[in-house]
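=== Structure Prediction Worksheet ===
Name of assembly: unnamed complex
Input type: mixed (protein and possibly other molecules)
Chain count: two
Listed entries:
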Amino acid sequence: MRKPRGAPAISLLMAVLALAYIYPLILVAINSLKTFAQIMENVMAFPSQLRWENFANAFTLMRYPNLFLNTLIVTCMGTAGVVLLASLAGFKLSRTKTRISWLIFLLCVAPMMIPFHSFMIALVKVAKTLHLTNSIWGLGVVYWGLGVPLSLFMYHGFAKTVPTELDDCAAIDGARPLRAFFQVTFPLLQPVTVSVIVINAMWMWNDFLLPLLILSGSKKSQTLQLAAYNFFGLYKIEWQNAMAGVLLTVMPAIIFYLILQRHIIKGMVAGAVKG
Amino acid sequence: MTPGRRRARRARWLEFLWMTAPAVIVILLFVEIPFVMSVTYSFTKWNGLNRAVRFIGLANYKELLTNDPSFVSAMIFTLLFAVLTVAAINVFALLLAVILDMKIRGKNVLRAAFYIPNIISLIVIGYVWRFIFSRGFDSLGSLTHLGIFQLSWLGDTHLTFVSVVLVSVWQSIGFYMVIYIAGLQTVPRELVEAAVIDGTRPVSRFFRVTLPLIMPSVTVAVFYSVSNALKTFDVIFSLTFGGPGTATTSIALDIYKTAFSDDRFGYGSAKSVILFLLILVVTVTQLNAFKRREVQA
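=== Predicted Assembly ===
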């Protein structure tokens, strides 16, 4: 194939463009290390000396450790539940070739066509009735219902590519169904499991509206995004603390992304294309 | 049937039940029952607290179609917003994908840079841009003396619309770029090389060879961008909260305000049903129209 002409020029042009693209985020980083007076004077100037105490301020004002833990609990609990329920049901529905099984499958994936905003009002009512509001654990449980449909769909599709002979082997060995599933089948579903974890974890970590609806009555149980919103509202004028707060809020997701970059990209594409 | 056979059948049925029931239960509880409830509430007058739920037939629907300027303006905003963001997102994302699919240096770092806004929560994105539009543009304005930095990007009705579109597009391009890159990688090299040998110019090569082959990716990307645009909420919540006035209030935000600020749960539910129908009709039409244009390599 012909060597692309002007490749270095395009590369350079794209680098400049990319830098301009993330410049707003660079500005956030720069200003998180300035004094308030410096921010008001010139946003683009680099800080004359680095004020790390902005981060200490944001850390304590936001009650960051508490929020981090809450969000981690919701994300882990939500994601684990989705993986478990969706893999079990997706696999079983894919293996059972009856009309009932097909109908249940349709029932399980229909929610993919129902936008969250069209049932959120009644969802709050249901969550209240079940005493799931104002609790981190309750929020995690609600995520199961919202996350399972797409994930189940992905497991269902992938299970078709897993040879059925292996299920039979496990059955002949006399393994109990539960053990057979976790020892034989579940490891074979691993490529989907990675995508499912990535999609659900990124969504639950960054989600705002559901926590807002479910946790609104409680000051103690808040997630990072929810508290970030309230924090920015309160400290509107104190930009330096707010910018440090922004970085503290987005850091976990960015680190997660940088470590698992390849899996995340693959997972997001898989979720989009199969969904 | 022998008792042994019957027992085996029962065991198989039980296994099916315990493997599928948990998923079915959570889906019913947290999506499907609430959805059916929303449809039911949409025919009632209810404030969310009272036990008294009064059936009022189609009165909510009549009100929102004939006597609710805020819903009509939310509808117009959302549709305009969707048209502009979908067009901008897909054009720029596809352009970026084509460039970053070429053999250029540092393309992985470049892809990551464009993808990063997508991993930050929308609520924080909105706040970051509030800072950029106010403090950042102040500094840029006094530095460059350019008029565009001295405008009121979050104060003026029309400009705020542009700001919301700009921020939404900026946040989501990376995601669609990745979908298009995945699509471009499925294009068989021989076909592109054959076109090169035939002497087709790059631009017409793209429109005649590449684009038809990546139509499945276009279908998916347009589908997601349309449905996300029609549901837009978070960015607006933190960037403008629907203002100034109701200039940037989307349907989703309008539903939220109706139900949780005005305590009109029945009326809010009617609006939710309209949103559901709108998204359903638009996306099904889009999928049908686009699927027809997909070709095999």
